[in-house]
Write a structure and sequence with these properties.
The complex is a heterodimer.
Chain A: H1 4-32, H2 37-66
Helix pairs in contact in A: 1-2
Chain B: H1 2-7, H2 9-16, H3 26-49, H4 59-79, H5 87-106, H6 115-137, H7 139-144, H8 156-196, H9 209-234, H10 238-243
Helix pairs in contact in B: 3-4, 3-5, 4-9, 5-9, 6-8, 6-9, 8-9
Classes of the chains: A mainly alpha, B mainly alpha.
Chain lengths: 67, 247
């Protein structure tokens, strides 16, 4: 039995919390300052890309550990 | 799953060879690259007919104008007033990645679902960033940025260390760009395949297509956006910083 799915689950848990924090604070910032939506959404996407990368790296490390 | 794969010979072939094995050869990869390039140039050739002086006619011409304006806005808002000259490169990246992500929705393999193609794209992007940095700051000026602020005496050691770390981070930029794109597109395929195994009657995984459609747009946007950010990091001029209002 392989434990790789559990590892993926834990990685997804942390990354989901991070993405949620980024999205939530970006949303509240946007609602407070609607004129800054353009800048905020750009920064939000950059932050999300870097957080997402952590999960992808976990997937690759996990895959290479399984094989 | 079975009836649908019988209808689509490419899908069936992919299933026989274990999930897109036919793209692991050079010819197989190049087939999909050629498909993307054909679609891209076909769309642009049709759109080009609508470009008349004065007013643009035709739906595709209008769409391509919208795309140009969008990317132009992206470049100018991130890089600054001199960002408009990087638009052609960014539009090219956008078109290739977006179309090949759309191909990934319909075919078992797409160029962006192959790691080496993504690595090539990312290397082109990072190489372009270095080239633009050298062009705007000069060869030594560009590499002086890597060493951080000027320090005297024994602190030069820190500058040397910073230079090495920055060199590694430039390489890691290319790796992270390619892995992000590959992971998202290929990961979407993997998720669909494993969801399809749940129930043999209906391909449940195809319900993921709306999510994948979102990924298509977001990944193309992220690649272009990060390239813009990297360009803005290497081509910033000191006088523009002082002229900009404090924020």
């Amino acid at each position: 039995m392989s434990y790789a799915p559990f590892a993926l689950g834990f990685a997804a848990l942390g990354v989901a919390i991070g993405l949620g924090l980024i999205g939530a604070s970006a949303m509240s910032g946007m609602s407070r300052q609607p004129e800054a939506i353009g800048k905020l959404s750009t920064q939000m996407l950059i932050g999300m890309a870097f957080v997402e990368l952590v999960f992808l790296l976990t997937v690759f490390v996990g895959l290479s550990a399984v094989k | 799953m079975e009836p649908i794969t019988r209808l689509m010979p490419l899908l069936a072939e992919a299933k026989v060879e274990g999930g897109g094995g036919h793209a692991e050869t050079f010819v197989g990869t190049m087939f999909y690259v050629a498909l993307v390039v054909l679609i891209m140039f076909g769309l642009l050739a049709v759109a080009r007919k609508g470009f008349r002086p004065g007013v643009f006619q035709g739906r595709l011409a209008n769409y391509s104008e919208q795309l140009y304006l969008f990317v132009n806005n992206l470049c100018v808002s991130i890089i600054g007033p001199h960002g408009a000259k990087y638009v052609p490169m960014i539009v090219t990246f956008w078109l290739i990645i977006f179309i090949s992500n759309m191909v990934a929705l319909a075919f078992p393999v797409a160029p962006t679902a192959i790691l080496s193609f993504n690595l090539g794209l990312a290397l082109i992007s990072i190489g372009y960033v270095q080239w633009e940095g050298i062009k705007s700051n000069g060869f030594f000026g560009h590499f002086k940025h890597f060493a951080g602020p000027k320090m005297g005496g024994p602190l030069v050691l820190i500058s040397v260390m910073l230079f090495c770390i920055e060199l590694v981070s430039e390489i890691m930029k290319a790796v992270s760009l390619s892995l992000r794109l590959y992971g998202n597109i290929h990961g979407g395929h993997e998720a669909v395949t494993s969801l399809n195994k749940l129930w043999n009657v209906i391909p449940v995984g195809e319900l993921l297509i709306p999510v994948k459609l979102l990924t298509v747009v977001v990944q193309a946007l992220i690649f272009c956006l990060l390239t813009c950010v990297y360009i803005s990091l290497v081509t910033h001029h000191e006088d523009e910083h002082e002229a900009a209002p404090a924020h």
